[in-house]
Amino acid sequence: MLDLIAPLVITNRTKIVLLSLDGLGGLPRPETGRSELETARLPHLDALATTAACGLLRHVAPGITPGSGPGHLGLFGYDPVRYQVGRGVLEALGIEFPLRGGDIAARGNFCTVDRAGRITDRRAGRIATDVCVKLVDRLRAIRLPGVEVLVEPVKEHRFVLVLRGSGLSGRLSETDPQVLGQPPLAVEPVEPTAARTAELVNRFVEEARRLLADEPAANMVLLRGFDRLPELPRFPEVFKLRAAAIAAYPMYRGLAKLVGMDVLKTGGTFADELATLGEHWEAYDFFFVHYKDTDKAGEDGNFDAKVAALERFDTHVPDVQALGPDVLVITGDHATPSVLAAHGWQPVPVLVAGRYAGADPVREFSERACAGGTLGILPAQHLMPIMLANALRLNKFGA
């Protein structure tokens, strides 16, 4: 898609806003038969859906559950299967860690295990960030032969592990089994050249287990998303956009930085993010704004909290509309159904509002309603050219 789109892109003065609700999509609650979106009172989103083009986004392929990294890469116009980036790299960039060529980065979670070593909480009760900082200080005492070990706090239960040295490989399996009641997995090399790196990471995990043994909650670590710093086509150059990202969580800032967006400093709430949007409105053509609360509630399996998060988001929609974007897109990077308490493979709703978007029969912003929209079921990477077309930023193809 990038090779097709790039020669067609033209500059214009139009403005595009992409609002991404992390983990937007859901599934019906068994007791009511209605999803979180169908349960929530969303007057502004529903009104917008009546004047917009609506549909569903599929982020990778049918039945494939996307992580937040590939989910957002698709929203930015990149085929997530072709352009794969490990979560560790994104977390490191998000906290402005100076990754070097050859560094191996992993995203870490502090977690809770019982006396038998089985995981009882993959996020250690979402410990406070100041607790994370103190625990990271303990992990910095770990030494491994032939490599430099760098550990940095991120937010709440998250941290970044970076191994720096020669001959390292990011082709490693993950330690997180993604379920409760099982022990963390041993790291395995995905290819023979990664055997030494796998051995080093397993030694790090064992040392972490020893150093955290006296903690009541965060007494173990989980590691995933091992990777090196990749090179991706630059978003501002491909799409000829002055692009800015506004996100409170480091991983999403890292992803935007990786593709070349300017990452704007903002506060920790969505209201802070929208204030930042207003402050920088004249300086950019494209804004990516991230909303995290929907995903947190879904991962916690808290249906009512996700409904409340959706309703909070809805109250802010008029604030964005008041800025007068030429194209306003609202969607998500993946589903996080509360009934799964995890990411899901289900397509997520999308609406594209603008002067030229057209309207369709959709009258509410939900999974079932948007399935009947004129956009149909789109691969996520097809959304970016639709945004550009509606912003009058694409020439026609061919004679």
In short:
This protein has 399 residues and is of the alpha/beta class. It is built from 14 helices and 13 strands.
Helix content: 25-40%
Radius of gyration: 21 Å
Helix/sheet category: alpha/beta
**Total helical segments:** 14
**In terms of quaternary structure, what is this?**
single chain
Largest sheet: 8 strands, mixed
Based on the coordinates given, report the CATH architecture of the largest domain.
Answer: 3-Layer(aba) Sandwich
Order of helices and strands: HEHHEHHEEHEEHEHEHEHEHHEEHEH
Q: What is the CATH C-level name of the largest domain?
A: Alpha Beta
Low-confidence stretches: none
Beta-strand residue fraction: 15-25%
Q: Could you give the count of β-strands?
A: 13
CATH superfamily of the largest domain: Alkaline Phosphatase, subunit A
Number of domains: 2
Biggest sheet strand order reads 9-8-10-1-11-12-2-13
Jot down its keywords.
399 residues; 2 domains; 8-stranded mixed sheet; 5-stranded antiparallel sheet; 14 helices; 13 strands
Give your account of this protein's structure:
The protein has about 400 residues and is an alpha/beta fold. It folds into two domains: about 240 residues, Alkaline Phosphatase, subunit A (3-Layer(aba) Sandwich), CATH 3.40.720; about 140 residues, no CATH class. Helix content is about 30%, strand content about 20%. The chain contains 14 helices and 13 strands. The chain has an eight-stranded mixed sheet with strand order 9-8-10-1-11-12-2-13, sandwiched between helices. Strands 3, 4, 5, 6 and 7 form a five-stranded antiparallel sheet that branches. A hairpin with a 5-residue loop joins strand 3 and strand 4. The longest helix has 20 residues. The chain is globular. It starts with a helix and ends in a 9-residue tail after the last helix.
